Amino acid sequence: MPLQVELKGLHSPDGDWRDFRPDEGDCFGFFLQAMVGPSGVLSEESFDFTVCTPKWLQIRCREQGPLWGHGLLIVDGYDPAKIETEIRKLIARCAGETWEQCAAGLSRFGHWEFADYQS
Asked: What is the chain's percent helix, strand, coil content, to nearest 5?
């Protein structure tokens, strides 16, 4: 039977991400951590994303050169409810028999704090 996992919370070290108001609605990027763990257990681990718009990425590419895409949630505008919904949908798709299997699936999209990048 697959392990049930859930979103335990969303956090940005930059401040209250739900109250964030970008200067330009179509050009922003901010760091967001999804705290995820097995359902019904007081345990959570961080999966990190940069939430950004295509225009923000375009400007970064122009300024810095090519960028890799791991850990990006690309949106067309700032809508906290849509951002949370997309993260919840991602978590619902990542199933496994163990936490490690579920976390490995999630780590294909976000940076997992305990990922073993050596293997």
From this structure: 30, 25, 45
